[in-house]
Task: inverse folding
């Protein structure tokens, strides 16, 4: 039976329910703390729990928390407040991106970059495998996804080493894979390495592709079989909302509706409703964006409700399942 690994253990994928495929709940990224970038510090368990309450009230069941160790992960806090809210969480093993690595590792007099430089590809595989099979951050809470990331139109040697080590960890554990792309760039270059490593792209979800609303790139990524995370909803500073909808519907027209998923990637206090900054919050996508998408999809001749059932329920059951065998 296909299973997903949550912070409370393994569950049948059919139990995931309505799912956001990429979000952040509680995290204190070391780099942003050092730089005094307070908007990125989601450091109140009570306020973060209130956001989970909004998600649950809107009909949400499960969230993939894409917070890796270099982005201020605290799986103990996340597990506690998620259980209080009655929300299922899938946590992240692996790493985010090299822009975060000049910061010192909390509690240690060494930077993430120095630590990563000291590791071989085999060391990275062993570390990430341990996070999936044993536990993270000194706990017995296991990661349900392995993650790597690249920069804005860049992929440096450290990120490539991390990527290959994470792909090795996938081969060893069967864990699904998540990749960060900065502003939706380097997705196809990531796929080149995935193919070199002979990893099946159907176990990979690529994030932030809606930051780069290029239909040709989206189609080429989709043709690999990878899942696509559309997680920039409300970011009008990048594109108006209708651009994202058109990109999604283009993928549906090309036959790729089984590869699209939706998330919020809320990672700022000003985007949360409960941190006192007036943000839209974790309930917004299900409460407000969902009916808008249904209306716009209907105007374009599609059954928007049926599509969203795939994006929120059916597709995550495949994307977050461990490889069998």
Result:
């Amino acid at each position: 039976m296909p299973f997903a690994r949550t912070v409370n253990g393994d569950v049948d994928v059919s139990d995931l329910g309505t799912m956001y495929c990429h979000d952040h709940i509680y995290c204190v990224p070391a780099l942003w703390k050092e730089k005094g970038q307070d908007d990125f510090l989601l450091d109140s368990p009570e306020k973060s729990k209130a956001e989970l309450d909004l998600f649950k009230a809107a009909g949400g069941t499960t969230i993939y928390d894409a917070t890796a160790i270099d982005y201020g992960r605290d799986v103990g806090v996340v597990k506690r407040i998620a259980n209080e809210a009655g929300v299922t969480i899938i946590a992240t093993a692996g790493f985010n991106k090299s822009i975060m690595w000049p910061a010192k590792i909390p509690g240690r007099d060494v930077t993430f970059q120095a630590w990563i430089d000291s590791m071989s590809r085999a060391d990275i595989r062993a570390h990430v495998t341990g996070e999936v099979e044993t536990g993270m951050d000194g706990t017995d809470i296991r990661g349900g996804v392995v993650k790597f990331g690249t920069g804005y139109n860049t992929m440096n040697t450290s990120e490539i080493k991390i990527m290959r080590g994470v792909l090795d960890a996938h081969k060893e554990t069967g864990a699904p894979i998540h990749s960060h792309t900065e502003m939706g760039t380097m997705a196809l270059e990531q796929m080149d390495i995935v193919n070199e490593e002979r990893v099946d792209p159907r176990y990979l979800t690529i994030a932030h592709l809606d930051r780069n609303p290029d239909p040709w790139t989206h189609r080429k990524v989709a043709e690999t079989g990878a899942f696509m995370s559309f997680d920039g909803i409300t970011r009008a500073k990048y594109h108006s909302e209708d651009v994202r909808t058109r990109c999604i519907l283009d993928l549906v027209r090309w036959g790729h509706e089984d590869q699209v998923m939706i998330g919020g990637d809320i990672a700022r206090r000003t985007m949360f409703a409960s941190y006192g900054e007036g943000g839209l919050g974790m309930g917004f996508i299900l409460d407000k964006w969902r009916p808008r998408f249904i209306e716009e999809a209907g105007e374009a001749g599609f059954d928007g409700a049926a599509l969203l059932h795939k994006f929120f329920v059916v597709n995550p059951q495949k994307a977050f399942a461990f490889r069998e065998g």
Notes: The mean pLDDT is 97. The domain at 3-319 is CATH 3.20.20.140 (TIM Barrel).
